[in-house]
Amino acid sequence: MEATQYKEKAGSIFKRPVVWFYGIGSIAYGIKNNAFSYLLLIFANQVLGIPAVYASLALAIAMLWDAMSDPLIGHWSDKTNSALGRRHPFMYASLAIFPLSFFALFTPVITVSAEDALLFGMSSAWWYVLVLAILIRTATTLFEVPNSALLPELENDYDRRNSWLMLRHGFGWWGGNGYHCINFFFFLGTWGYVSHIGYSVYGTVGAIIIALVIIISATGTQKVASSFPRPRETFKFSAIYTEVKQIVESVWDRNFAAIFFYGLISAIAGGLGTALYIYLTAYFFAFSPVQVATTAIFVMLSPFFAARIIPFLAARFEKKYVCMASGLFFIVVYPMPYLMVLAGFWPELGSTTSLIIYTVFIVIEVTGLVVNGSLRDSMIADIVENREIKTNRRSEGLFFAFTGFAAKATSGGGIIAAGSIITLAGMDNVRDVAQMTMEIRTDLIALFLPIYLTLQILGLLCVMMYRITRDQHNANLSALAGRKADTLAAESSA
User: Fold this and answer.
1) Residues 262, 247: Cα–Cα separation, whole Å
2) What is the model's pTM?
3) Which domains does the chain have, with CATH numbers?
4) pLDDT per residue over 274-292, tens digit each?
């Protein structure tokens, strides 16, 4: 397909309101993801006083619970027969839990302490973080898995799916990073990295935004989703063995295995990198909260750059190769700032020049990540029809849930690794950038980068197994259309 043709196809979809309602829902996920990835470890460690290793353990347990619930919710939503459609009952259920639990996490509604030893020797603060993290992750699953699973029914075109997901990923980045900026400019920027008040305001405003975008996205996609065909089968808890068997049958696929294991491995790296983010920006690079927020503002430009890159590349190459190229580009660029600091080629830490150079690197890195994530999710959408040919079931929720399962089940390993690295590098008691010596910086990066980059490389090797091309996808659509026509003809003749 010519690039101009792709541009016409992609441009036309943005005139449809449902595209925007679908995309805007990812703002809730973006806010939650930024909170858990960048803030929760340092909040639990330096505000609530939980040792980093223990705090990371609580977050990893919550993540593991989340990972196990994702496939169940995804499969359940695939087989839900409701007047609201297959997905929306779950999305509305999330509204009752998500905002309140997000507020409560950062504004403890009970007295918690890091010193008192309760069940299994863990403090009340540790248990509080664990329970609230589980509630938030469950609520996120109830919304995010069904919402993302709407795509294969909303759009079946091989190329236009890229545009839908580009917009969805863009909203996730804009929402998450936009609120990240507000937080670092006004909340943490006013009260500091270790203030209860700053995090409380952050949690309150974040809860309000999450509630609003869930309402907008769920109600905006409701009418279209209600018109989709009802599932042939309904979910039965009484026949859980059969349900589990169908789950295994649906995901037993080489192409899905490629994307699943890519997500599995890269999620460990992602969990490691994001959990260390504040430690790296605030202590390694010596940036203030306002400087971190300034970087985040420019990061929000990354989806715009990705929006220009994706149509250009997608029109010329298969999704697999664009995904691999963007991932490889990220691997090359990511370590450069850290190595330049250790080698003495970086400007004065915390300076304006340092901030400008760091921001350029981050914008480039995130642009690559948005391209990579959009293409990876688009490949998942294409797997839906490929497996429907073999199983005669549409399993959108299940496939998107399993990719979430991969990310969540294993990024917990990255979070635990981050807690261990903080302790091994001697950073548990670091409360001010003046306490960061070059020796600590060297130890931190020597522990972090080799693990992070090795995992990213291994993930890319998995993508090489993916085989669905544009031609095969179109053949799958034709086969399914013929099957549907035969079914309708048989029903009319009967």
Assistant:
1) 20
2) 0.69
3) 3-224+250-484 (1.20.1250.20)
4) 778 888 998 899 998 889 8
